[in-house]
Amino acid sequence: MGKKIYVGNLPFTATSESLSEVFSAFGTVDSSKIITDRDTGRSKGFGFVEMNDSAAADTAIAQLHGSDLGGRSLTVNEARPMEKREGGSFGGSRGGNRDRDNRQSTNRW
Fold first, then answer.
1. Does residue 94 sit within a domain?
2. pTM of whole model > 0.85?
3. 70: domain range?
4. Which residue from 19, 42, 65, 89 lies 20 to 30 Å from 34 (Cα-Cα)?
5. Residue 51 dihedral angles phi and psi, to the nearest 5°
């Protein structure tokens, strides 16, 4: 099974294609993606690369971590699973599926 690699501190000019090109020197790249801001479309300065060969991925991580790309020192390591985030911009559950027919009235007037 392959590995998903986190790549941070990317120059804002980096593209998914240029990221894939850097990692392809170590083996076959299955996919690469630069994460962008959903409102502006601008790069957030990090991305992910997936490589099918774990050994090639480990070599890429070891060789590229701390290396220079576009004047920036890359942070490269194995990606961790995404943590579950609570709430949203309103700070809690939106209650989209609650059963409104079975709730008790709290109105005491």
1. no
2. no
3. 3-78
4. 89
5. -125, 135
